[in-house]
Amino acid sequence: MNRTDANIICIIQMDKEKSLNVTSTTSLSPAAINACRDWYASAAGQITLARVQRIVSGMSTDIFGYYALETGVLAGKHSFLEESRIASQFSLGAVEGEPVSVRGTPEHLPFSLSNLDLVIASHALDCTDHPHQVLREIERVLVPEGHCILIAFNPISFRGLGQLRYLFKPHARHCQFYSTFRVREWLSVLGFEVCEIVSTGFCPVFNGHYVFKQDRWLDRLGSKFRLMTGNVTIIHAQKKVSNMTPLLPARKVKPVLRSGMVVNPGVGRFVRKESNDAK
């Protein structure tokens, strides 16, 4: 199936069913999108992006299916599905003029119920005011046993510590970082099972450059011991659907015998009684 056929299928799905309980507008801030993209455009960000690409490729290499979607801040700028085995791939973006397959927002995915096999969301939770809605939409469009890969900034990192400068002026903060523990809770409520969590980019960065050139040993140390203090966290989760059949309550049968009763084996037998005159 070529790209044109995939786009036609996508449009058909958009018209077939609208998203439930969502708004048609997005809360993705242009300032947040630009700040995130500027960080990845820096020298340190490019190194981190290459590592994220390798990690995501390793997570998605054994995922099979028909349709895969990329959404979030990096959709239209970078593709994480280059090594994916899923043939029909879509990219969904909200910025005009970018080479994406579909125009839309992470809070309002223009796909019908249970149609996608894989969704990769890059910083869609960081740059929105409604992270729960983003996850609900991902759960809605995924098929049972479908996969999602979330790419997000880590608050327990050097980049997360930089957010402390907005402690007393939260209105100036472009992105909101959420801990891995909180995201795991949200996914659990929606019925997802977390398969793997990987963190990368452990060096302190200032204005897009490493603070010290000799601190690359932090990256080697963090990768070797799989520390969870990297600037970027990748979460791989799978949508689980219960296949159990609910059991109906058993019908109550009134017992024939009551406690304390004695069975008389002679009951019901016919006994012939002879009169004394017959003798």
Descriptive notes:
- By secondary structure, this protein is an alpha/beta fold.
- The protein has a single domain (3-239), classed as Rossmann fold (3-Layer(aba) Sandwich).
- 28% of the residues lie in helices and 19% in strands.
- It contains seven helices and nine strands; from the N terminus they run H-H-H-E-E-E-E-H-E-H-H-E-E-E-H-E.
- The strands form two sheets. The chain has a seven-stranded mixed beta sheet, sandwiched between helices.
- The radius of gyration is 30 Å and the shape is elongated.
- Residues 101-150 form the Methyltransferase type domain.
- GO terms for molecular function: methyltransferase activity.
- InterPro entries: Methyltransf_11, SAM-dependent_MTases_sf.
- It comes from Thiothrix lacustris.
Structure, briefly:
With 279 residues, the chain is an alpha/beta fold. It is 28% helix and 19% strand.
